[in-house]
Amino acid sequence: MVSGFFLKKDGIDKEIVRLTVPTVLSNISVPLLAMCDTAVAGHMGSEKYLAGIAIGSMMMSTVFWLFSFLRAGTSGLTASAFGASDRGRMAYALMRSLALGIVMALAVAALQTPILSLFKPAVGATEATFSLAARYFSIAMWGAVPMMVLTAVSGWFVGMQSTKSAMTVNIAMSALNVAFTLLLVYGAGMGYDGIPLGTVASQWVILIPTLWLARRLSRRNGLAFSFDARIFFDPQEWRMMFGVNSNLFFRSACLIAVSMSIYTFSARLGDVAVSANAVINQLFLFFSYFMDGFAYTGEAVVGRWHGAGDFEMLRRYVRALLRWSAVVTVVFSLFYLVALPVLTSLLSDSEAVAASVEECRIWVVLIPMAGAAAFIFDGFYIGLTRTRPMLISTLFGVALFLTLLIFVARSPWMLWMAFTCYLALRSMILMILFPSNLKKT
After folding, report:
1. Surface-to-core class of residue 151, CB atoms within 10 Å of its CB (0-12 exposed, 13-18 middle, 19+ buried)
2. Cα–Cα–Cα angle for 238, 243, 244, nearest 5°?
3. Is the CA virtual torsion 161, 164, 168, 174 positive or negative?
């Protein structure tokens, strides 16, 4: 029954499965990795370690989220070039993204001290907790260059319709990360510092195999890489790239505002609230990375058919992806409804943390329903290289979230209510604006 409903004769759903399954497996490895770090810190005998990991990883995520446009912008531009069979644009998209990524990584690494100074008053954590978070951040920053390179190449893989390559890299890096973390924390006796060191080690080790995969995919598609002046000095291409990426950059800044607000609000309620919200956030990330698998497929196929000028096929893929997303969302909500206590116990052995998470059960269940459309439509807009609506929806969502947080929220329960409303508003705006934006293309 299920296979008959989804896998139809026209092959669209089979293509979606072919592209999405590797991406989902790849993206699942990311929250599982974060869960491993959280679980290791949560069983170190003190809640301060879990709080330190939560805030430290939040600071790292904040920095890299600001530059996450590198992946999304590369994906959309590459997919459009792929659909148009423009080999030059496919190659140049990767080269420009790599150059931009390395420059940004070096700049961020050089500015880590002032960045920490900006974070300290913003997160509002205790001195002991922030000290642990700063240690995590400073160590993890040694992986800035490989992280930016991997981000650019990952977006290029998706745009080139090779989600298996992205899966291979992410799963291998996640496996290495877990192995290095356990080895350094327990085997080498490094304790807390072994957690970020494990991440850095895995990023550098996986870099060369990733570039080798990119070279192999280039040869398969007949791409030639040469240091042409057009790569770095063509103003038209850079205007196109920055036109797409500027909206994504400011959208990332809005997402950072939401993330910072969550942890600042939590820190003022104490380490138990920080730890409980870290658990809930990991569950949200698990869902979001899963849904991003479908969103990445949306980027790839919408960009491909947009570049080829076949809008009938584009619409058919959009309808099919919406159908898949609806089913996956219901499954996640039911799973969280039934299994929340078990999931919480895997991430923390604190009874106080478990009680705080249980109070927010209704929002843990509703968050997937509120946010599913935001994820999948983001993929559609990136594929069309029309990123302005993504910024508009996020601006309105953040305004609502901050209003509720400032004037209504007084507890973790109210915090996650505000977050659910923020996701729901983003979803609604993106759905409303999509038909008109599709016509404009």
Report:
1. buried
2. 105
3. positive
Q: Which two tokens stand for residue 254?
A: 């809005």
The model's confidence at residue 27, banded by pLDDT at 50, 70 and 90, is confident
With H, G, I as helix, E, B as strand and everything else as coil, classify residue 149: helix
Phi-psi region of 124 (alpha: psi -120 to 50; beta: other; left: phi over 0): left
Closest CA to 89 of 70, 150, 211, 97: 97
301 pLDDT band, cuts 50/70/90, is very high
Domain count, the chain: 1
pTM over cut 0.85: no
Distances (CA, A) of 325 to 6, 100, 293, 299, 375: 12, 33, 10, 14, 9
Distant-in-sequence, close-in-space partners of 38: CB < 8 Å, separation ≥ 6: 50, 53, 54, 278, 279, 282, 347, 348
CA distance 367 to 422: 10
Cα 332 to chain centroid distance, Å, stands at: 18
Residue ranges making up the domain that contains 195:
2-440
d(CA 259, CA 119): 12
